[in-house]
Write a structure and sequence with these properties.
Layout lengths: L4 H19 L4 H15 L4 E8 L2 E12 L4 E2 L5 E3 L5 H13 L9 H5 L15 H6 L41 H15 L3 H13 L19 E4 L3 E4 L30 E3 H12 L3 E2 L2 E2 L3 H8 L3 E2 L5 E2 L4 E7 L2 E10 L2 E8 L4 E7 L5 H16 L6 H4 L11 H4 L1 E3 L8 E2 L23 E3 H14 L4 E7 L4 H12 L7 H4 L24 E8 L8 E2 L22 H16 L2 E3 L6 E4 L18
Parallel strand pairs: 17-19
Antiparallel strand pairs: 1-2, 1-15, 2-3, 4-7, 5-6, 8-9, 10-11, 11-12, 12-13, 13-14, 14-15, 16-18, 19-20, 20-21, 20-23, 22-23
Helix pairs in contact: 2-10, 3-6, 3-7
Length: 609
């Protein structure tokens, strides 16, 4: 049934209010971060990294606490974590690639693939297949250990029988790390490539991900140190999590020593890159125009065929879990080792998912679960209810810049580059916007000082900031709302919103409340200058300022690699200065603050104080 235009408009306004609360650095975005910090305090947690994907795009990244507890080094967004058992999905993805190439089959006898007999001594006539290794029904246990293949190879002379359960292969689920270390060995033997190199070349590099299995090649300064809680001792660092292989690689035997890289749990990756890998699985094996596995392979990995515990069920290195978020069935995997706890879960149909990683918590699984539920509640569940709970914004009665506590950025950076679009007609409204009487960038002093520090840090690299908009009077936001409601004014559609209908702009791009009106938000880009600091040109970001559409999303897969790199360069510089990006717009940043949101201001921007 079609909704009336009036009802559609009312729903759009609700959506706009929700997104204003969720994304702008003023209200509910701060609310969820306050909740996450509260959970960290409740569960005594060292550090936490979270990423949220919604509508098939990364819409939120958060890093809290410590990367290095002893040195008090804060955790940063792109720090690398060992992710433990989520790593199994990388091994299974590699297997599916080889299956698609016809180089092996999921129903092949594991012994034929690995080079020694793989038979449960209690059931010698029952083949153990590659599929059984992948779905944990092989009857292979972690027995005495699982760090090498000697424990299960009859030719190695040990107690290989101890690595098998007393039940038939294929009978039921029992989690097996040893089975996945065997999978890594099979990948080596079939592909002819060392396991870590295969995964890097065929999964990491095509998707543009950083990290991998071999810690020796990674930047040690980016590793999030891992801590295990011990009663009476507190948090103890688990250095073994990142132990380099060093000279051991000189004696590496390909097709035998893959467990050295821990196919079962050895991937090191940042939370945002893990989210991009998750998006590949969420999109049936393809992301950002790069296909990693075929849709049929992605479906096989995600289709749960083996009961785990009466609730969760397992596919091929991915499982379905109806209890992580009560009443919601999500697909993914968890990881835990050395004190870290990780999870990657998604809904492939509704196109959302979460990555959660902590490098140490007394709360263990309970903390990881609580964080996932908080993210789901905030970003996904019952959005219509959230606007009613948000407090009405307060508009200050300040009438001058001084009364509002706003400063002109050029008082701090006299030569900052700027082109204040709303003071003229070259903007999406197509006319000067109410409240912009002069092309000035005003900000609250803390935001202005932070922005000045960012600009100063960039200049030695021959980069500079270029500002489009800063403080925005509340009357300007009202002007935007009147413009979007005028269905006949489509003069700027071709330039600013070619692929959207005007009412769709209320769905996350234009809202009745803007964080800009609080004085802590700025729209800007980067310029690259010559060695003398002159001849500055804007970097290619893929769209112009105030382009409304998915291409403007900071992590849009439709942007080119160079454009994404430029956006990341801007994001890294701004995040280092204490700003947070609004993920729907690559140019939009707000200053992080633990303080409650301040009032809105409606002082016109002029040449006067």
């Amino acid at each position: 049934m079609k909704r009336s235009r009036k009802n559609r408009h009312a729903l759009s306004l609700c959506a706009a209010w929700l997104l204003a609360c969720a994304w702008l650095p003023s209200m509910a975005a701060d609310d969820v971060e306050a909740r996450l910090r509260g959970l960290m305090a409740e569960h005594d947690t060292v550090g936490l990294a979270v990423v949220v994907a919604r509508d098939n795009a990364i819409v939120y990244r958060g890093s809290f606490g410590w990367k290095d507890l002893e040195a008090k080094v804060p955790l940063e967004a792109d720090d690398l974590f060992r992710i433990a058992s989520i790593s199994k999905s990388f091994a299974a993805t590699s297997v599916m690639q080889l299956v698609e190439q016809g180089r092996l089959s999921l129903d092949d006898d594991a012994g034929d693939l690995i080079g020694f007999p793989v038979r449960n001594p209690a059931f010698p006539d029952r083949p153990i297949t590659l599929r059984m290794l992948l779905d944990h029904t092989s009857s292979i246990t972690d027995g005495p250990s699982y760090g090498n293949l000697d424990v299960i190879d009859p030719g190695a002379g040990g107690n290989w029988q101890g690595s098998y359960a007393d039940r038939a292969p294929g009978e039921r689920y029992e989690y097996s790390n040893l089975a996945y270390n065997m999978v890594g060995t099979i990948v080596e033997r079939v592909s002819g490539e060392r396991f870590d190199a295969y995964v890097r070349r065929h999964v990491f590099e095509p998707l543009g991900l950083e990290g991998g299995h071999l810690v020796d090649t990674l930047d040690a300064g980016r590793l999030a140190r891992i801590y295990r809680w011990r009663d009476g001792e507190g948090f103890v660092r688990s250095d073994a999590a990142y132990a380099p292989l060093g000279e051991r690689l000189q004696h590496y035997v390909q097709g035998r020593d893959a467990p050295m890289f821990s196919p079962t749990g050895g991937v090191k990756i940042s939370a945002p890159d893990l989210a991009r890998y998750m998006l590949m699985h969420m999109n049936q094996g393809e992301w950002n125009g790069v296909r990693i596995i075929a849709p049929a392979s992605a479906k096989a990995m995600q289709t749960a065929t083996v009961d785990v515990d009466g609730t969760a069920a397992y596919g091929l290195a991915l499982k379905t879990d109806p209890e992580l978020v009560p009443g919601v069935v999500l697909t993914g995997h968890t990881g835990s080792a050395y004190g870290l706890y990780s999870s990657m879960f998604f809904d492939a149909e509704k196109k959302y998912g979460f990555v959660v990683i902590t490098n140490g918590s007394r709360g263990e699984e309970a903390f990881r679960t609580a964080v996932n539920r908080a993210l789901h509640e905030h970003f996904i569940a019952d959005p219509a209810a959230e606007p009613a709970a948000a407090p009405a914004p307060v508009v200050s009665d300040a009438t001058t810049r001084a009364e509002a506590g706003l400063v002109d950025i050029r008082e701090l950076v006299p030569d900052i580059s700027q082109s204040i679009a709303y003071a003229g007609s070259h903007n999406f409204v197509g006319a000067p916007v109410d409240g912009y009487e002069a092309p000035r960038c005003w900000l609250k002093r803390d935001a202005a000082e932070a922005l000045a520090r960012v600009d100063a840090a960039l200049r030695p690299r021959h980069l500079r900031l270029h500002v489009f908009d800063c403080y925005r009077p509340a009357r300007a936001v009202a002007h935007f709302m009147r413009w979007v409601e005028d269905a006949d004014d489509l003069a700027t559609k071709a330039t600013h919103y070619p692929d959207l209908d005007k009412p769709q702009l209320l769905e996350g791009y234009i809202a009745p409340v803007s964080g800009h009106s609080r004085g802590g938000t700025v729209d800007l880009t980067l310029l690259r200058c010559d060695a003398d600091g002159a001849g500055c040109e804007p970097l290619d970001m893929g769209t112009g300022f105030d382009f409304f559409g998915p291409l403007a999303n900071t992590d849009s897969p439709d942007a080119s690699p160079a454009q994404r790199a430029n956006r990341q360069l801007l994001r890294e510089a701004m995040e280092a200065g204490g700003f947070r990006n609004h993920p729907m717009e690559w140019w939009h940043y707000g200053l992080r603050s633990d303080a409650p949101p301040g009032p809105l201001y409606d002082v016109p921007i002029s040449s006067r104080r």
